[in-house]
Amino acid sequence: MTASLSSSSLSASTPVILVGVDLGFSHFDGELQELGLLAETAGMQPVADLVCKRKAPDPALFIGSGKAEELKLLVDMHQAKEVLFDQALSPAQQRNLERFLQCPVNDRTMLILEIFAQRARSHEGKLQVELARLQYLSTRLVRRWSHLERQQGGIGQRGGPGETQIELDKRMIGEAIKRTKEKLQKVKKQRGTQRRQRQRHGVFTVSLVGYTNAGKSTLFNTLVKAQAYAADQLFATLDTTTRQMYLEGAQTSVSLSDTVGFIRALPHGLIDAFQATLQEAIDADLLLHVVDAANPNYREQIGQVQQVLAEIGASAIPQVLVFNKLDAIEPAQRPLRLQDHYEVDGQMLPRIFVSAAANQGLDALRELLTQRVLQAPTAAAREFSDLPPICSVEPDKGESLF
């Protein structure tokens, strides 16, 4: 028998308790808003939350014995079926909490993995999620067995003589990881062939990147008149979709790709597993960094996206910031100018405000892309990051929040 991540507790309307620990980091979400959205995306219903402050996690119970008692009362009071932590738990902490609370306990990493597993549609996407799931599971086998020393092997057994259950599980998961990596390598080669064909034909490539639920897929559909899945939810898109977009001003088409959204504390295993998909961003001539302008945390979300881009080796690719959802901003708080520059990591990046849903500002975005294509006539040219700014206005100095 092989241990596996159980999804039985993640059925629709499962009542769950949310837990967040303020460890002094600036990105701490005191209202657990994003964790709640993740839970709802996975089909669960948050019924209560517990927020506490600590200098460091408790090695045994993460939140300490006192708060663990409070959490147990909440679980009993609300008849919760599961507890979700906003931070990553060690296998030992997870095991100890489950024993203490007498209910399943999972963390942000596992929750994101579950959502990815639910949303993956293509063969490639499913392979990538499976690889990340197996890698995560391989570090947590210890919590799935209370009989670690039960011997397997002997006549008729799959394990070798004297092989313990945990050793058998590790070996089987290791073999599964190897098989999945081999399949993904084939997919990566296929994508590489497609990219080389586009480069040989001199196609200018643009990739949409951004925080999850920033409206990338809606913008993609509007620009190329496609029907890629788009919804007001986290991780609506996992699979890269590429279409040709004709720019009348440049008298040519560009290749536009919609990619998976990023999120705070995106598990490294997912970043590694999704290399084949994220390669579209790495090899692009231009990144359209889509930002949810109506989200009060948009500055932090920009920073999180920049961090992931650096991790995958795409930080040097030229970017244009596309502040989306202009229609969702209160009129009194809307920007004074719809095109300017915005400082990110010490660099002034071109910025444009649009609403993909309301079809606002898209002609100006197409014109901006046209200028980029005319400045970089070949797909192989990446030196245009040193060209003069495409937009002559100075950064906004008005009273707008932007």
UniProtKB/TrEMBL annotation:
Q: Which residues of this UniProt protein bind GTP?
A: 210-217, 235-239, 258-261, 324-327
What InterPro entries does UniProt report for this protein, alphabetically? G_HFLX_dom (IPR030394), GTP-bd (IPR006073), GTP-bd_M (IPR032305), GTPase_HflX (IPR016496), GTPase_HflX_N (IPR025121), GTPase_HflX_N_sf (IPR042108), P-loop_NTPase (IPR027417)
| Protein name in UniProt | GTPase HflX
Which Pfam family, just one, is annotated for this protein?
GTP-bdg_N
Q: Where does Mg(2+) bind?
A: S217, T237
Give the protein's function.
Answer: GTPase that associates with the 50S ribosomal subunit and may have a role during protein synthesis or ribosome biogenesis.
HAMAP family on file: GTPase_HflX
Q: Which PANTHER family match?
A: GTP-BINDING PROTEIN 6-RELATED, GTP-BINDING PROTEIN HFLX
Oligomer and partners: Monomer. Associates with the 50S ribosomal subunit.
Q: Which cofactor does it need?
A: Mg(2+)
Q: Which SUPFAM superfamilies does UniProt cross-reference here?
A: P-loop containing nucleoside triphosphate hydrolases
Task: Show the GO cellular component annotation of the record.
Answer: cytoplasm
Q: Which CDD domains match?
A: HflX
> Where on the tree of life does the source sit, at the highest rank?
Bacteria
**Molecular functions (GO terms):** GTP binding; GTPase activity; metal ion binding; ribosome binding
Species the sequence originates in? Comamonas denitrificans
Q: Which family does it belong to?
A: Belongs to the TRAFAC class OBG-HflX-like GTPase superfamily. HflX GTPase family.
Question: What are the subcellular locations of this protein?
Answer: Cytoplasm
What keywords were assigned to this record?
Answer: Cytoplasm, GTP-binding, Magnesium, Metal-binding, Nucleotide-binding
Query: What is the primary gene name for this protein?
Result: hflX
Positions of the Hflx-type G domain: 204-377
